[in-house]
Specification:
With about 350 residues, the chain is mainly beta. It has a single domain, classed as Porin, CATH 2.40.160.10. About 10% of the residues lie in helices and about 60% in strands. The protein is built from 3 helices and 18 strands. It has a 16-stranded antiparallel beta barrel with strand order 1-2-3-4-5-6-7-8-9-10-11-12-13-16-17-18. The chain is globular and about 60 Å long. InterPro entries: Gram-neg_bact_OMP, Gram_neg_porin_domain, Porin_dom_sf, Porin_Neis. This is Porin. Keywords: Cell outer membrane, Ion transport, Membrane, Porin, Signal, Transmembrane, Transmembrane beta strand, Transport. It is a multi-pass membrane protein.
């Protein structure tokens, strides 16, 4: 009886012993105060992001990984736990697979490193999708070249689908990037606010696509980047397309970095006819390092609209003032990462 008790205790201890899976918490917190012309408003924005990451080394030598992420106390989205990201996957020398609620890699590339320092409202916020319920593959690095592919089967009850392809090449101070995203019989369902994450919505005959190419180069403390982006939306016999681009330069001096970015949304084309709905924007940002993980910044942005029309791809982007031909914003903020 005693030996049996010892054996049972040993087995129980082995089963209940912690597996020592790695779990980490990271994130960021940002506080912005800004003044916007047009409605002439003074306002603030608080953005706090929490990321929970875990991994476990498998007996095969591969790694099981997972991530749950959310924004905290926002007034419009991501407050449900995992609404921002919630995925599980496997990684090894062959690459990485992920399944679940994820950001579109095309959107992430447009958001960073290109749509930064005040340029994201035109370049990253004017996308046809930010994420979905993907099956994703990320390749290993092949001498500086890497790629990723994502596929979204939609709700499973309809035939709408979406796919995403990105590729990058890095060699020394040179970086080249390209991306393509498309939906078939589907459009983006903006349901991140209701606890379901981002997903596509079945719309018969609705085919959307967006693509971009970009490059970056650093000359010591001086850097330049440029990117070109195209968007096309088709619904039955109706077709609308609109292109845009940005060019940016930055330089660093001691604890300061200064960035100047010019962006432009060109006039759209609808069913073969030009529409006067373009936008020009100039953005400046001064970043000042307060510590290894914290920085303060001053941002000034001016937008010049070709007309009172909303750009075909620019519904609701930050700074758009209905019926106005221009707008400006001055912002001061603090960002910290942990």
């Amino acid at each position: 009886m005693f030996k049996r008790a010892i054996m049972v205790a040993a087995v129980a201890a082995a089963v209940s012993a912690p597996a020592f899976a790695e779990v980490s918490i990271s994130g960021s917190a940002e506080m912005d105060l800004f003044y916007l012309t047009g409605p002439k408003t003074f306002n603030q924005e608080i953005a706090i992001v929490l990321n929970f990451n875990g991994s476990d080394k498998l007996d095969t030598g591969d790694t099981l990984k997972w991530k749950v992420a959310q924004k905290v106390a926002t007034d419009y989205r991501y407050d449900s736990f995992g609404n921002r990201e919630a995925w599980i996957g496997y990684a090894g020398s062959w690459g990485e697979l992920r399944f679940g609620n994820q950001f579109s890699n095309t959107y992430l590339m447009m958001d960073w490193p290109y749509g930064t320092k005040g340029a994201g409202n035109l370049f990253a916020d004017t996308v046809i999708s930010v994420g979905g319920q993907y099956a994703s593959y990320f390749s290993p690095n092949f001498g500086g070249f890497s790629f990723a592919a994502q596929y979204d089967m939609g709700t499973g009850s309809k035939d709408g689908t979406a796919y995403d392809l990105t590729a990058s090449f890095a060699s020394g101070d040179l970086n080249l990037d390209a991306a393509y995203y498309a939906t078939q019989d589907a459009t983006q369902a903006q349901n991140a606010a209701n606890g379901k994450g981002n997903s596509i919505k079945f719309v018969n005959g609705q085919d959307n696509a967006m693509w971009m190419v970009g490059g970056r180069y650093n000359f010591g403390s001086f850097g330049v980047k440029a990117a070109y982006k195209g968007t096309e939306m088709k619904n039955g016999a109706s077709k609308t397309s609109q292109d845009q681009y940005l060019v940016s330069a930055n330089t660093s001096v001691d604890k300061s970095t200064f960035t100047l970015t010019y962006s432009q949304i060109l006039d759209s084309e609808k069913n073969g006819k030009d529409v006067n709905d373009g936008v020009k924007q100039l953005a400046f940002q001064w970043d000042y390092s307060l510590s290894k993980n914290t920085g303060a910044f001053l941002q000034a942005r001016y937008q010049d609209f070709d007309s009172a029309l909303n750009p075909a791809i620019g519904w609701g982007f930050d700074g758009r003032q209905a019926g106005k031909d221009n707008s400006a914003r001055v912002l001061i903020g603090t960002w910290t990462g942990f």
